[in-house]
Amino acid sequence: xxxxxxxxxxxxxxxxxxxxxxxxxxxxxxxxxxxxxxxxxxxxxxxxxxxxxxxxxxxxxxxxxxxxxxxxxxxxxxxxxxxxx
Length: 85
Hints:
There is one protein chain. The chain has 85 residues and is an all-alpha fold. It has a domain at 42-85. Helix content is 53%, strand content 0%. It has four helices and no strands. It has helices at 12-20, 44-57, 61-74, 77-84. The radius of gyration is 31 Å and the shape is rod-shaped. The model has no long low-confidence stretch (mean pLDDT 78).
């Protein structure tokens, strides 16, 4: 049978070990709060990706000019992307 030694008389290492037994871990879960990006906000990166997609799909300069003209007239990428589909 082990003899009980009060916490204040134990070594610092033993105290840490004792208190660590009461604590729990997150078990691989990251406790940082995650936020979803606002879908209505303007996203420059998203627009650049869409324009690069248009450039990759076009095979010649005429196609790019056509899409740019459509974009400038309507001021929306959805109208340009609807032409691709």
